Amino acid sequence: MTKIDSDTVTVQKSAEEVFNFLGNFNNFQKLMPEQVTNWESTEDECSFTIAGMASLGMKIQEKKPNSLIKVIKHGKAPFDFILNCNIAEKGNECAVQLSFDADLNPMLKMMAVKPLGNFLNLLVNKLKDLP
Known about the structure:
alpha+beta, 3 helices, 8 strands, 25% helix, 43% strand, globular
């Protein structure tokens, strides 16, 4: 498995607020960059296309209140993966890091690691701007 971690960012919200936001895929679209198209979601599942990369489907597999949301491949995706949304309470704010474990073949790994890392950092940094 290839492991890609985002930066750890401090969000000026409680762990509970961030957990509730990330625990509903209908909210995830607010974090997505322009390159994401064909967005479809329910509370627990979503699918979308990243221009120039791939179509992905995801579903929430596990939630540990205010600390972890575990997301797995669902439907379309060119490889198996697990996305962990890690949340740590820090007083009136929290620290958030996205951790992506993917079953990438060597060729795909070479092409995808940097764009996936950039994508995860973009998502986690947009959390800082939540109203």
